[in-house]
From TrEMBL, chains A, B:
<dbReference type="Pfam" id="PF16859">
    <property type="entry name" value="TetR_C_11"/>
</dbReference>
<dbReference type="InterPro" id="IPR011075">
    <property type="entry name" value="TetR_C"/>
</dbReference>
<dbReference type="InterPro" id="IPR001647">
    <property type="entry name" value="HTH_TetR"/>
</dbReference>
<feature type="domain" description="HTH tetR-type">
    <location>
        <begin position="14"/>
        <end position="74"/>
    </location>
</feature>
<keyword id="KW-0238">DNA-binding</keyword>
<keyword id="KW-0804">Transcription</keyword>
<protein>
    <submittedName>
        <fullName>TetR/AcrR family transcriptional regulator</fullName>
    </submittedName>
</protein>
<keyword id="KW-0805">Transcription regulation</keyword>
<dbReference type="InterPro" id="IPR009057">
    <property type="entry name" value="Homeodomain-like_sf"/>
</dbReference>
<feature type="DNA-binding region" description="H-T-H motif">
    <location>
        <begin position="37"/>
        <end position="56"/>
    </location>
</feature>
<dbReference type="InterPro" id="IPR036271">
    <property type="entry name" value="Tet_transcr_reg_TetR-rel_C_sf"/>
</dbReference>
<dbReference type="Pfam" id="PF00440">
    <property type="entry name" value="TetR_N"/>
</dbReference>
<dbReference type="InterPro" id="IPR050109">
    <property type="entry name" value="HTH-type_TetR-like_transc_reg"/>
</dbReference>
Length: 185, 185
DNA sequence: CCTAATACGCTACTCGAAGTAGCGTAATCT
DNA sequence: AGATTACGCTACTTCGAGTAGCGTATTAGG
């Protein structure tokens, strides 16, 4: 489901993952998550829908890989805990504000609510790495880390979903102030 | 679009809104938001799909009315501000935990991300009353109230969407502690 | 060079759910 | 009685996710 294949025989996969991800974000940005059909994404990437389904088992899986691509690499965490957390939150808010990223995130999240397989994928491939990183960094219980993630991500996505636009900087700063009172030290 | 009609002539609408709302929540609880099709909701309510569409212009509009029904009346707010806010948060978490309510909420919210008309409906009919109430009660800027709503609702929905289950009480209490540090006084 | 193996692009299909049209019938008011 | 509106029903349109199968292209290895 990823990049170049390891088996030796046969025609290798052409190197179009990056093109597809860019086309996905562009299409979502222009037409919204629902408007970004697999047909349209394929057309924007200059390939065929069947090729997409050869690489990703579902639209949700494609979007998740596209988001993983958009959200890497992870943000830096230094010894200054409050500054690092604030930086990570600004980083997440910024990513969600990038064209197509927030809408794709909210869309796949919506789909996941009703699709246990997709939820599993979202939880395992998307949330788990950040959970592990934060648990190691903060040295707090998994319960608290999970709540931290729920608060940050949930708030940003709720704003995105309610207004259709990313959260403004001054509101991000307000949220940071609030969260740091509990998780800052 | 609501209850008994005011015009005098013609056959009056039968009194089945409450039945439909209950059927909707039951169906969403049993089959999930995506599985709760208009056909199935109609069948569960003992009516016809066309009747649903005579009363609500879309599935999203039906769900929103169903949620308005489930979330009324509003919680009590007393002079004790921290206790009132904590109570309101527990009330919201409890409602979202009721069978079918959280899933319906998350589902319609998901749809709204990609549907400006539905987003408008959600914002106007659902959020606006609570925004007004909280602004009057807290006497704070609309910006801060909106963030408060984003944090509470977003966090609860994110947990619901990520795990498929409502947030546990101890996590709700943790969230209350966090939020009260900023909005408690 | 030839063959096996795999990927590609394409057309055409199935399936399911939202939403619509139209009909005959039921209930209410004047 | 007649006008008016709602109901239940069947049938339909539309659209998007996902699939099947074909001919072709590209690679590795004999």
């Amino acid at each position: 489901m990823q990049g170049t294949n390891t088996s030796s025989a046969g025609r290798p996969r052409s190197d179009l993952n990056a093109v597809v991800f860019a086309a996905t974000r562009r299409t979502v940005d222009e037409l919204g998550y629902a408007g970004a059909t697999m047909d349209r994404i394929a057309a924007a990437a200059g390939t065929a829908k069947t090729t997409l389904y050869r690489r990703w088992p579902s639209k949700g899986a494609l979007i998740i890989d596209c988001l993983l691509d958009a959200f890497s690499p992870m943000p830096e965490l230094t010894e200054d805990r409050p500054a690092s957390l604030a930086g990570a939150i600004r980083w997440l808010a910024g990513k969600i504000g990038e064209p197509g990223v927030g809408a794709a995130f909210a869309g796949v999240f919506s789909d996941a609510v009703n699709d246990p397989a997709l939820r599993e994928l979202l939880s395992t491939r998307f949330q788990a790495p950040y959970l592990a990183m934060l648990r190691d960094y903060l040295g707090e219980s998994e319960q608290r880390i999970l709540l931290f993630i729920d608060v940050i991500t949930g708030t940003l996505l709720h704003r995105m979903g309610m207004t259709g636009r990313p959260m403004e900087d001054r509101d991000v700063e307000l949220m940071i102030d609030m969260v740091l009172k509990t998780f800052g030290e």
